[in-house]
Amino acid sequence: MPFPFPFPSTQSTPLRFLGAGAILSLILLSFVVFGRGTTGTYYFASHSDGNGATGYTLKSPSGNIYSPGQCPGSSEDNTSNTNAEWGFRTERDGNNHGLSESQCLAAFPKLFGDVERMMEGRIGGKLITFREVDELARGGGDGLVRGAVKDGELYIIGFGAMPYTFTRGKATLNSLNRALVAFPDRHTLPDIEFVFSTDDFSNGRSPVWSYSKRAEDEGVWLMPDFGYWAWPEVKIGSYQEIRRRIAAVDEGDNNSKSKPKLGIRFKDKKKQLAWRGSVATNSEIRGGLLSASRGKSWASIREINWSDESDVRQNLLPMEEYCRYMFLAHTEGRSFSGRGKYLLNCRSVMISHKLLWLEAHHGALIASGLEANYVEVERDFSDLERKIEFLIDNPETAERIANNAVKTFRDRYLTPAAESCYWRHLIRRYAAACEFEPVLEEIRGGERVARGVSFESWALDM
Ligand SMILES: *[C@@H]1O[C@H](CO)[C@@H](O)[C@H](O)[C@H]1NC(C)=O
Ligand SMILES: *[C@@H]1O[C@H](CO)[C@@H](O)[C@H](O)[C@H]1NC(C)=O
Ligand SMILES: *[C@@H]1O[C@H](CO)[C@@H](O)[C@H](O)[C@H]1NC(C)=O
Question: Quick check: 52 and 443 in contact, CB under 8 A?
Fold first, then answer.
């Protein structure tokens, strides 16, 4: 039986982010929307459609609110690896996708601030209704995925056309599923129905899950970006592979077949600010960086024209090669820059303009003091030269910032363990903000029909 989801048969994915204009034209051109399947619209039943179909049940009012460690049905705080002495150790725990809730909270105290605020806003106001989720899914455009978690398992209810973001949709569903199957107590997770966007930024409609948001996007729930799985369009493989390649530059590689390679010491890195990229995606910011650094000896900054193959070949810097520079420029594009995670994996100093677009791990960024783990400059880069010169003159300060970035990001907030902790925390907090639970089966014309497909079956149909 074919699944009732429209899948594009081939994907041509450009080496760039989606632009707002592109998104808009895709929305206008597309006729493939949620709910259009080969077998009709049955998976969009709502409480009030008069056919006896519901799609959801309301929760009991007391079922929503809980605090950490008290989630309904949780028994995890009694497991042997959760005790007062447990502390996160990167070598042992960094790749563990199945940490317990209390371990996650202990290891990543700064990861959940935005989710907490989102939940509190809803609990203090109006809980998320099925109708909101339903309307978001129907009206949102191509890049949306509608799914559910039930008894700790993932279901796909709708998958948009995704001419540009197909791999992102797949990557994100795989990441979410990984966070579920790695968690022994997954059956204790609450049941939810959600919609996420695979575009650079969402339409902002509540309660969408999105890779990035601005502070004022009050309806948007942050989720981890697709790069935690893999990012093929820019020739970055799986997250584990790129982390290994980056660590090999900084720490050396004793596993290579040839003789062991030593890592590069911070003081031996090139004393330059590195950046490569397209200016068109955000000419104000990226153009500003180009002007502020033009002709400076401390700058290794080049524009890349992604449509010009020889330009790409000449100027592209493999991601791990960035780590050979002391200073790495971080720039927003159309919204957040997916590259930021990799830059923060290097033992280098990330220099970023003041950010508009937030990601989940940004709660751990510190711009000043002894704990500083990156350097912040103005959005017009007017103080860039002064700050670079200070860092070049004060190499011990620069090295401290680079070491703090490794400790905070590479070895903690940007580990695979943190990513999966975030997914489960999002599920719990989002659930606490919802007044309903999904029902994935309904009666239509006297017959039982499914409202979703299990992730396992869905994955085989691609
Ligand atoms: C946790 O373990 C203690 C001692 O083994 C037991 O008394 C307690 O009831 C357990 N709590 C839960 C929630 O299972
Ligand atoms: C490789 O071996 C050297 C010398 O034993 C050691 O100092 C270094 O930390 C090792 N690097 C890695 C990545 O394990
Ligand atoms: C980029 O390269 C393409 C193909 O060579 C060319 O047509 C286009 O004008 C270039 N764009 C810029 C901004 O230089």
Answer: yes
The sign of the torsion formed by the CA atoms of 123, 426, 42, 159 equals positive
pLDDT tens digits for range 102-120: 999 999 999 999 999 999 9
Which of 447, 437, 438, 459 minimizes the C-alpha distance to 39? 447
Are the beta carbons of 348 and 405 closer than 8 angstroms? yes
Ligand number, closest to the Cα atom of 74: 1
164-204 pLDDT per residue, tens: 899 999 999 999 999 999 999 999 999 999 999 999 988 88
Q: What are the residue ranges of CATH 3.40.50 in the chain?
A: 241-413
Nearest CA residue ID for atom 9, ligand 2: 251
CATH of domain 241-413: 3.40.50
Cβ 283 under 6 angstroms from ligand 3:
no
Task: Read off the amino acid at residue 157.
Answer: I
Q: How far is the CA of 229 from the centre of ligand 2 (A)?
A: 27
Q: Are 79 and 102 in contact (CB under 8 A)?
A: no
> Length of the chain, please?
462
Give nearest CA residue, ligand 3 atom 12: 305
| Nearest ligand, measured from the Cα of 311 | 3
